[in-house]
Write a structure and sequence with these properties.
Strand order of the largest sheet: 2-3-7-6
Helix content: 40-55%
Number of helices: 10
Low-confidence stretches: none
Bound molecules: 3-thiaglutaryl-CoA, flavin-adenine dinucleotide
Order of helices and strands: HHHHHEEEEEEEHEEHHHH
Strand content: 5-15%
Radius of gyration: 21 Å
Number of strands: 9
Structural class: alpha+beta
Shape: globular
Length: 392
């Protein structure tokens, strides 16, 4: 793979909207990605392995639970810092951002928000340091967009419950130490349970043959009469709203992350277009290539503004789920379109692993599907503006 020469576009001087601390956190993440992710990520993706060697580095830049308070081992940062870290990670690879998103928003967040003090003390510091890695089990083989239909269940058995069922498409599952699993009780009420590796009847087979997110490990969570102590049930909230609130946090991170992938594709294509000559001049001099590049930077700038404003609203506790959906949907869509156009600017070279674009392009096919599909987010906006539910 070519050396990482990335220079971040900032067409509207959006850096002026950031504090010195934001810029420091972002730059630290950017340098770490250049040094520790870019040199190894192409091979990891080609080999379809998650590079576990980067786990301590992810922890060191505060990527595990950025907004978790220091008393629980987190760095206690604000929402924009969280977004900026996700942007830089996804600039490197969506799979790396995915691992951090799941750990932060889908494992640490529910424990922090809905867990007991004992659960927080037991799990959060180890998750923040990367000593423990977590996964989040919501999706099932027959219930993806409609998680409320889940059939994974648990029954009361004294001081513990007995859990049965299966989750599919679970990021980090093959190597997770714990899984935050959503399952129904005997009254059909959804609860979060912390299932620990080593519990009898719990297995995590890996899903192979992915053409997307190859540097992230995906698998199943299978529960066969697993005895889960009642002390591992998250007591703070039940019902579908509990896992969906975690998705709000993860979708917010993706709205920022997708900009990172888009920026990397744009930057690569711009540099290539200036250097590559055909018909005696740089291809950047042709109007058709300029149109592609000009549209890319316009869309990136709009996405940056959307993400920044959402970060402010979220920090103030005012962001709605529908606003988060709009940003996730828009920013992933512009990123996938930019990746496609950028690849064309590189001609044949665009399909090789010498450049990051094809990898981003394939990764974004997962990003546009997980955390709510493109269609589901459109329907969330539709419901919000019309008051009419078009899901079912
Ligand atoms: P609905 O009746 O609308 O809502 C049920 C209850 O939940 C509340 N609610 C929310 N609460 C917090 N945050 C949100 N975003 C919420 N959306 C809804 C709602 O108020 C209600 O509360 P209550 O108290 O009245 O019961 O539920 P529904 O069954 O009609 O479904 C709505 C729908 C389709 C929008 C929802 O199910 C959905 O978002 N589906 C998409 C599923 C999804 O996104 N799965 C993601 C799995 S995790 C993942 O992909 C990780 S990828 C790895 C990585 O991040 O990198
Ligand atoms: P389906 O729900 O079957 O959807 C199929 C198609 O139907 C889609 O185009 C969808 O938009 C459309 N559709 C569905 N309902 C409607 C409707 N009402 N109206 C119009 N169109 C509709 N899940 C987790 O719980 N944890 C994870 O860590 C996790 N990681 C993932 C990692 C990867 C790489 C991938 C690919 C997925 C991951 N997921 C995870 C699962 C992901 O959230 C689901 O794939 C996603 O929610 C869609 O569910 P589905 O694949 O079952 O598709």
């Amino acid at each position: 793979m070519k050396p990482d020469l990335f220079e971040a576009p900032d067409y509207y001087q959006l850096d002026d909207l950031l504090t010195e601390e934001h810029k420091m956190i972002r730059d630290a993440a950017r340098s770490w990605v250049k040094r520790d992710v870019s040199p190894i990520i192409e091979k990891a993706a080609q080999d379809a392995v998650f590079p576990k060697s980067i786990i301590p580095g992810l922890a060191s830049i505060g990527a595990f639970g950025p907004y978790i308070p220091e008393q629980y081992g987190g760095p206690g940062l604000d929402q924009i810092s969280y977004g900026l870290i996700m942007q830089e990670l996804e600039r490197g690879d969506s799979g790396v951002r995915s691992t951090a998103s799941v750990q932060s928003s889908l494992v640490m967040y529910p424990i922090f928000k809905y867990g007991t003090e004992e659960q927080k003390q037991k799990f959060l510091p180890k998750l923040a340091s990367g000593e423990f890695m977590g996964s989040f089990g919501l999706t099932e083989p027959d219930h993806g967009s409609n998680p409320g239909g889940m059939v994974t269940r648990f029954k009361d058995a004294g001081d513990h419950v007995i859990l049965n069922g299966a989750k599919l498409w679970i990021s980090n599952s093959p190597f997770c130490d714990i899984a935050v699993v959503w399952a129904k009780d005997e009254n059909d009420r959804i609860h979060g349970l912390i299932v620990e590796r080593g519990m009898e009847g719990f297995s995590t087979p890996e899903t192979h043959n992915k053409w997307s997110l190859r540097a992230s490990a995906t698998g199943e969570l299978i529960f066969q009469d697993v005895k889960v102590p009642k002390a591992n049930i998250l007591p703070g909230r039940s019902g579908l709203g509990a896992p969906l609130s975690c998705l709000d946090s993860a979708r917010f991170g993706i709205a920022w992350g997708a900009i990172g992938a888009a920026m990397d594709c744009y930057d690569t294509a711009l540099r290539y277009a200036k250097e590559r000559k055909q018909f005696g001049k740089p291809i950047a001099a042709f109007q058709l290539q300029q149109k592609k590049l000009a549209e890319m930077i316009t869309e990136i700038t709009k996405a940056q503004l959307l993400a920044w404003r959402l970060g402010v609203l979220r920090e103030e506790g005012k962001a709605t789920s529908a606003q988060i959906s709009m940003a996730k949907r828009n920013n992933v869509e512009i990123a996938i379109n930019i990746a496609r156009e950028a690849r064309q600017i590189l001609g044949g070279m665009g399909i090789t692993g010498e450049y990051s674009i094809m990898r981003h392009s394939m990764n974004l096919e997962s990003v546009i599907t997980y955390e709510g599909t493109h269609d589901i987010h459109l329907l969330i906006t539709g419901l919000d503006i019309t008051g009419e539910n078009a899901f079912a």
